[in-house]
Structures are given as structure tokens and as C-alpha cells.
Design a protein that fits this description.
There is one protein chain. By secondary structure, the protein is of the alpha/beta class. It has 4 domains: 3-153, VC0802-like, CATH 3.30.2130; 175-212 and 249-368, Rossmann fold; 393-507, RNA methyltransferase domain (HRMD) like (Transcription Regulator spoIIAA, 2-Layer Sandwich), CATH 3.30.750.80; 530-707, Rossmann fold, CATH 3.40.50.150. The protein is 31% helix and 25% strand. The strands form 5 sheets. It has a 7-stranded mixed sheet. A 7-stranded mixed sheet has the order 10-9-8-11-12-14-13, with helices on one face. Strands 24-23-22-25-26-28-27 form a 7-stranded mixed sheet. Strand 16 and strand 17 form a beta hairpin. Helix 5 (175-183) packs across helix 6 (202-211) and helix 11 runs parallel beside helix 13 (459-477).
Length: 711
Amino acid sequence: MALDLIATSTMGLEAVVSRELSALGYDNRIIDTGQVAFQGEIGAICRTNLWLRTAGRVLLQIGSFEATDFDQLFERTRAIGWEDWLPADAAFPVSGRSRKSKLTSVPACQRTVKKAIVEKLCAAHGVTTLAETGPTFEVEVRLLEDQVQLLINTSGAGLHKRGYRPLRGTAPLRETLAAGLVLLSFWKPGRPFVDPFCGSGTIPIEAALIGRNLAPGRNRQFAAEAWPSCHGHWEEARSEAADLAKETLEEAVIGQDISGEALSQARHHASLAEVAGDVHFQRRAFSELSSKRQYGCLITNPPYAHNLGTDREVAALYRSMPDVLRRLPTWSHSILTAYPGFETLVGQSADRRRKLYNSRIECTYFQFHGPRQPKAGAKPSETPAPAFGGVSEKAEGQAEIFRNRLTKRARHLRRWPTRRGITCYRLYDRDIPEVPLVVDRYADYLHVAEYERPHERTPAEQGDWIDLMLATAGEVLEIPRSQIFFKKRIRQRGTLQHEQVAEKKKIATIEEGNLKFQVNLSDYIDTGLFLDHRTTRSLVREAAEGCRFLNLFGYTGAFTVYAIDGGAAETTTVDLSQTYLDWTARNLALNDMQGPPHRMIRSDVMSFLEGLPLDTCFDLAVVDPPTFSNSKRTENFWEVQRDHAALLNRVLERLVPGGVLFFSTNFRRFQLDEAALTQASIREISRQTVPEDFRNKRIHRCWRMVRTANA
């Protein structure tokens, strides 16, 4: 006898459940959200419970009719042959739900159905009372627009309870949904697979179960196993499942996570699921994701809830995804998240998106399709388009123009630096508008910065574009990629910020003017040595003989090193940052310039000047305040003090008559109020101080001020 059965599912997985039923040989149709109806013999109850990976439960529909009042509900329920399924000692709790029906009281519906079943069973079994001590038959009454479904739960606990996950991690993913993610992807057994946020291992374990054709319910019990009508059928179904199981997975699936505790749970779960040898778990940060394998599938459920990190941290993680995923150019990527604006954060639209629910959390499954894997022996006719990234013909053309320009500049500067003992200089400064890069050479290293500029590339395509330009620069200048460091300049609210994107930390010692300096090529947009001040530093050295030198906003002390080399009798370097003062100390040590005559003071410059004894004077001074408004030191100068003339006058007051002050700024909108500086004769020397390797002759402005004798 064909039975009417219903496989339930979470919303969005109905089509997957339908395909699973078809693969098992059962015709079916989706009748409502979360319901797929099918028919089968008694053995179908056993087979579907054992094999369905994405269904919630398998329900036996024992009756269906219309009821607009409780009398109809009672009589039509009693008319059903309950005794064919429920023995005299059956336990049969009744649950219910009602939607858009005249019978709105669910408790009343439950009582009515319960009473009708009791009367029918008592009469059929010839008893006056029902003990309800035998096998359980969970009955559910569903009413929708006066249509009644009477259902019996054949599964018992939900089918997501496979029995292998006793430990609950943070924000667990249901096993049925995890299996659905795998079945909705392009992954097939034998293809590389990775979940970089595997947590307690659910997605990789479900993939391994699918790959080995292991029935997900083989290690658990079901309600219908205790039903007399199903005796004998379960043994047959379990025997079939054992025969169809594969011994090993063709290629192991990979689960990665940064949490050692989560991976410990994952390994335990894989062991309980009997796939420990088929899943390799690795402790690895998402930023380290890479693979040499081709045409794989990434399937993952990354963090998206606030309890997994701050909103800023989660958003930053998603923004980093394009740059990481472009490392897998032939892979397809499937990502489940409930985080709003996901596509905006990754900078491109998914090829397909599907709304799914993880318990009660509304999520979206974003799928980015990689290139198709060519058939064995076939040669692809063209370069396949990756899901993330790729280099266009336009980018190739830009790289060629960039190559030609760099070649010309390198040829032009080949002898000039060598003759002057210069190892650090600017090679390229946004010479071509379409390639908005700045390329500086620091001895055997390249320091490349990108200026943000509108373009049509996605973030991942931009990453590949940058890689192409860096490779081009390395080839032209014969510098390996490991010695090229890249950073971004990002304009925010009118100021320039930077984003560190170097893959490794590098602090190098370079030479300039026969002096040594430590530069940080990896951590800051400014390396610790401003190349545009090379000439100004030389002017300081020429003027420093026998001087008492003052360096305000000292940064890493380059002006101080030059002054000492020029014969300064004593130096004072002032900066608010202890990091920069420590850096200054290292630069002095590199040149054997330590000693009491050379003081380093941590202070705000105005506070320092105001606190000096009245008899303290200097012969030579440099004032080079920072420009960016996000700097604390800048706030002290540009926002707190505001009046630059007040600062310069304070410095001039501390100079002896004839003392020299070099004042420089990179602030483009700066206008020096010479009328307010009555203590000095002033001459702008900007043109003389911008080095010849700088195409931008307005990289800074510089003035030479001399304290007048009668001030």
C-alpha cells in the first residue's frame, strides 16, 4: 500500500530535499514552504529517514480533510483507521498549529483530535482505557485555511541530530543546513574542498559523509523503529546503506579555523561520524588561506554575529575576503552569512544568492562561480574568468605603459644616484594617471604606495592589478617580489590615511649621504626617512658646524643625524611619540653619535618651548610639523595651537641673532603669514630643496628664516 509521506525542510532547501527524494526513487512535489510530499511503501519510511541529508523530519500523513467546526474535526478524525498504526498501548501525544483557519484555538484542536483517537482505538482494540506505555507516535494536527492534515512523526528527534555532534561550539550550524550548502555547491567527490571557518567541523564532516555515500542517519535511532508495522524493514534499509557506503574518500576535505578549541571539537565530531580519516583539520587564519590545487570549492559559514567579534572586526574580515579568495583563481566560493551588506563589503555581486535559515536566523547563501573544469585532455580555448579577481586587457596595456615609463626613469637615474652616493630616491610619482602609484627605491628594496583613485575594478581585480604592477616594477628594476613592499593611501574626509597590506615585516638599514638610517618598509606609509627632504638635510649639515641644534617634531631624527655629522656641538630632538624617539636613538647609534650633548625629549613642542629656561638659546633649528589631521602631533599643532606664527615666533625667540630656522610643511593649503614673523628675515627655498628625482615640485614647501640682530 502506498503511503502519503511528507519530508519537511528549512525554508529554502525544499528543492534540495526534492532532488534527494528523486535520487532515492520517489516521485515528489513541493506542496508548501518547508514541505515536500511523496508516496512510498512502508520501507520508504526507513530509507528516507536514513538517507535524507537536508530534511527536518519524515511525516506520515494519515488523513487530510476540511473542517470548519470542532464536530467536523472530531468525526473526521475518528473515521480514520488509527488502529492500523497505533497498538493498544501506543503513546500518542498530540501537537498542533493553525493558520488562517476558523478553528483558531490550537489547544482545543489538540484536545479534539486526542479524544477522537482515544475513542477510535478503544473501540478498535476492545479496551476501555489506553495505557500509553508502548511505542511513541507523535501526532500533529495542522490547519491551514480550514484544511486539516493529520500527521505522525516517523523520525522522532529532528534529522539534523546525526549523533556525531555532542559538543556545541559558538553559533553552531545545523547538520541539515550544512549538507544543503554542500549539495547546492559545485563540489563533487574528488574535487578539492576547503572550509576556512570550519568551527566545530559540521560542513567538512557533512561533505565527507556525502563523498563516502554514508547514510547520515545510520548511527541514530528513529521513532518508527519501535512501530510494529515497520519491523523487518529497518534491518533491510540499514543493510542497504552499509552496502552502498564507500571505504574512503577520493580526496580528503579540508577544514580550517583559527581556534584550537574549535578544531579539537571538530576532530572529535569527525571521529564520531566515522570520517576522521577523510577530513583534515588545520589551525590557520583566513588571511593565510592558499592552495595549489585547481578547480576546488570553498564552502563556509564565516562569523557574522556580534558575539563572534565587534561589528568593525567582522566588517574588516569581509572586506579582506576578495584579496584572499583571489589566490584561488579556478575555485568556486559559496558563503553563508546573515551579515547585512555582504556584497557591498566584498565589492562585487554574487552569481547566485539564496535565502536560507539557520534555525531562526535569516541568512543568504552567496555563490561566486569559478571557471568550469575542462574535461580530461581538453585545452581551454581562453583564459578562464575567476570568481574573484582577474586581469583585463586594459590592465595589461597599463602595465606595458608603466613598464616603459619605469625603464626610461631607471635609465635616466642610473648614474646620478651613484655619483652622489644616493641609494634611496623616487623613481615614479603617478607619472601616468591610469597608474596612480609612487615607487621609491631604498637600496635593494622597492617601496610602492597606491593613491586611491576611481576605477571600475572590483577589490579582487584591483588586487590582481596591483600584483601585475608590482611584478612589472620588479622585472624592470631586477628586484625580487620578496623585496617589494606595497601600501595604500586612502583619502578619508579630506585627509590621507594608509592601509598596511605588506605580507611580511621588514626593517632595513640604508645609507644616505654616507650616513646610516633604519627604515621600516612594511608597517607605515612613511618609512622613517622622507626622501623629499634629502636636500634640506644637506643644508642643515652645511650650517651645523659648532651649533646648538634644535629639532622640533623630530620624527626619526634624520635632521639630527645630519646636524651631528655637520659638527653640531649639541642637539635637542623633541617629539611627542616615544616610538619615534626610540627610533631616533637607533639612528644615532647606527652612526656612533650617542652621548650627553644629544638630548631626546618627549614633549609637546609648545610645552617644551614654554618650559625652557630663559637663558637657553639655539643657533640652528628645524621645524617640520606633521600634516595629516589624524595624527595626535598634528592636532597639537594645527588644531590645538592653530596659530603657526605663534609657534615660529616662539622658536625664533630661542635663536641667537643670526640663528637659522628651517621651516617645512607638506600641507598644501598652508600660507605663511610673514608679516606676523617680525623677528626674522624670510626666504622661501622650496624650489631649491625639492630633489631632482621628484616630478612633483610641490611635494613640500620650505623657508629659511634668519633671526634678525635687532629683534
